[in-house]
Structures are given as C-alpha cells and as structure tokens.
Amino acid sequence: VDNTDAVHITETVDDLWTLLTLSVAPEDMGAIIGRGGKTIEAIRTVLRVYGSKTERRVNLRILEDKA
Fold it and tell me: Across-strand partners of 12?
C-alpha cells in the first residue's frame, strides 16, 4: 500500500476463531484486493492454512478507511 499510516489491523479472538479486521485508505483498496480478487484470495488462503495448523479458524474482514 502507498498510505501505510492508514493501515490498521485489529484482532478479535474467541474460543474457536480469530477475526482480523484490516482497515486501509480508499486509494489502497485496489492493491489489497488485487486484479480479479487474486491478492485478497491469496491472503485468505495463507490465513486458512495458518488456521488449520493452529486448529483455529481465521477470518479476514477489510474495512475502507473513510478518512
């Protein structure tokens, strides 16, 4: 991303799952999603593999920073 100051990640942990919420600047949304959604799908695949290794479900939610 170009605007690194606007990147924020929050983690919410429950007994069985972890929710990561990623907030980025509007102009960086395309870089996170990628052409045809390939970049975000690759990120989510890595998180699924990590989750299977740790026996936890890891989800990623992307929020567009309105600032």
Answer: 19
Query: Which residue matches tokens 């924020």?
Result: 8
8 Å CB contact between 45 and 38: no
**4: how many CB neighbours lie within 10 A of its CB?**
9
φ and ψ of 45, to 5 deg: -65, -45
* Sequential pLDDT tens for the chain (67 residues): 899 998 999 999 998 899 999 999 999 999 999 999 999 999 999 999 999 998 889 999 999 766 5
Residue 44 to residues 5, 33, 39, 56, 58, Cα–Cα distance (Å): 23, 11, 9, 14, 8
Q: What is the pTM of this model?
A: 0.82
Residues 6+ apart with CB under 8 A from 5: none
